[in-house]
Amino acid sequence: MAPIEPFTLSIPDEKLQQLSQKLANTTFPDELDEAGWDHGAPLTDIKRLTRYWLESYDWRKAEAKINDLPNYKTQIEVDGFGSIDIHFVHQKSPIQGAIPLLFSHG
Hints:
Largest sheet: 3 strands, antiparallel
Number of helices: 3
Shape: extended
Oligomer: single chain
Number of strands: 3
Strand content: 15-25%
Distance between the termini: 22 Å
Helix content: 25-40%
């Protein structure tokens, strides 16, 4: 088993600047009339989310909040893919006998 190591999220400023540039330079497609959610998220929602990320979202505040949690990283073996780096939060419940939960994304 690979070692489990503490992890601190730290996104370089250059990456955040690149993201801002990409968001600012985004060209949105035309939306199909009355498509709703049949062909993905409605364009108005995507534009609103893009504007929020560009103008209002405070990445450093979110990063600090994430780093307040007990973050770790390790490697797991995945058949057909080899060793994969994973990041996880290990937060024990203060409730005796609580059912463990595992949330996964990606």
